[in-house]
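URGENT: need a sanity check before tomorrow's submission.

F., can you look over the Anion transporter record below? I want to be sure the sequence and structure line up before it goes out.
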Amino acid sequence: MEFIALVIAIFTYLMIALRSITKIPPWASMFFGGVLMIVTGVISVDQAYSSINLDVIIFLITIFTFSSALEISGFLRYLAYKLVTKYRQPRKIIFFILLYSGLLSNLVTNDGVASSWTPVMLEASKAMNMDELPFLYTLAFGVTIGSVMMPTGNPQNLLILLEAHVPFLLFIGILIVPTFVNLILSYLVIVFLFKDKLKNVVIDDIEPVEIKDRRLAYLSLILLIITVLLFLALSALRIDIVLGSLVTSSLLLFMSKERRNIIQRIDWSTILFFIGLFIFTEGLFQGGVINLLYSFIPPPTNVLTIMVSSIALSQVLSNVPLVAIYIPEMQQLGVASIINWLALAAGSTIAGNFTILGAASNVIISEASEIRGGKSFNFFEFMKYATPVLLVNFTVLYLFISLAGTALIQLLAASH
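Structure tokens as predicted:
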């Protein structure tokens, strides 16, 4: 079975990497790869069903419901209009996309911002008569970098908070400074990488944009704020945060007259990608491919090896399944310290700044753009732009966690 699983894995990743030639989107390749794991006997149907994490699937559907409603109401287009008219210069817009998306990702998770802001990027680039790729890449990097600093920034951070019992304030206290440093340094890298695309941009006289359906916009925003508050409250009470978004999104559909339109505009292709990913990952485990990879990757025993291995394995497993595996493994190895948990959170998150498969938010942005007639991410082009950003992020986070983080925890321990 190991040989079959390995062949399926290579085939699936080749289809994703060669997307520009095959024209097959990543979600279709990943879903097909998952199905192949079943029909070839690598895993059973029951194993495939049990591998699907319904918490993640339902969470994405509920967050996408808000994104869809905000887009239909015209609020996202209005937001793009305000962004362009306020800052006007491409480099300024790039900076504030990076900053705003990074900060917002901690309130509605990186996947939520990726989904809701992609239409904003397309509208902004259209208004400025420029290529949308610099904006899309900035959004992808922004939500990844920004979501490092809080447990609510992404699902893997939340998993570490709940399962490893890392104090909420300590999590933020150690990771907030390197996050802001990375946002600033990454801005400089992005401007350098896209310097040719940011030149000679002419901003047309932009026709004023108004919110089309104010009732739907206000209803969505109010319920979204309530969702964020519920996330914070439920995580503090150690209750599944999905309950919060499930309640508020169902209220949105119950109260809105545009409920059918909202459901139809949800990014269902990304949902299929995740379903396929969970089944595909289970096939990698049962087929022995993961054990094979472990022989090439150092065990997670210190900050450096945890960050390196989590970045590498996240490209194969995606970051949420990777963290779910590493938590019990690190506990078994006896390296379950706060510093190492923060290294796992940082490494598994910035893994998104390596390949398109390193974070679900990358896939969400690419698919959401293509659905709306924009460009999608090319596998190798993404690596070309993302690798310099990753190297900067890794260096800053490693130094802060291993040096400043350790010193801070020792200081706190001494004070007690």
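My own read: The longest helix spans residues 90-127. DSSP finds 20 helices and no strands in the chain. If you see anything odd, call me.
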